[in-house]
Design brief:
This protein is mostly beta strands. It has a single domain (2-119), classed as Jelly Rolls, CATH 2.60.120.1110. It contains no helices and nine strands. The strands form two sheets. Strands 2, 3, 5, 6 and 8 form a five-stranded antiparallel beta sheet that branches. It has a four-stranded antiparallel beta sheet with strand order 1-9-4-7, with no helix packed on it. The model has no long low-confidence stretch (mean pLDDT 90).
């Protein structure tokens, strides 16, 4: 289940690595954890397939220094646009989490458009 109040990253379009804004989850996740849902509406690499994006969740105690908590799958771009949904389970006792994006390998002119929210309960299979 998703709630519009639990937006982790509003819709953005990026051409390079990007760190979202930290979200204060107070005392961390519930005992059984949570999951982030990345809705990727467009990723591509016109002019040369093979660019690779990595979506991930990072966490922090102070909203300043972040560390990778849960890497997600990597998305390899084709020259044409593709869409996908990526679910990333995570569990932390730290107060802040954020969605992060890394351009791991570049080729052509890579772009990606996505949003992320936090879901309650376990991700569906």
């Amino acid at each position: 289940m998703y709630d519009a109040q639990d937006v982790l990253q509003s819709l953005v379009t990026k051409t390079a690595s990007f760190n979202g804004t930290g979200k204060n989850i107070k005392t961390g996740t519930p005992k059984h954890g949570q999951h982030a849902r990345f809705l990727v509406s467009d990723y591509k690499s016109p002019g040369g397939a093979g660019a690779v994006w990595e979506l991930r969740i990072e966490h922090s105690s102070d909203d300043t220094t972040y560390h990778t908590l849960a890497p997600a799958q990597r998305l390899t771009c084709a020259t044409g646009a593709a869409t996908t949904e990526v679910l990333v389970p995570f569990n932390t006792t730290r107060a802040y989490v954020r969605a992060a994006l890394e351009l791991v390998t570049t080729s052509g002119t890579p772009t990606i458009s996505y949003l992320a929210d936090i879901g309650l309960g376990f991700p569906r299979p």
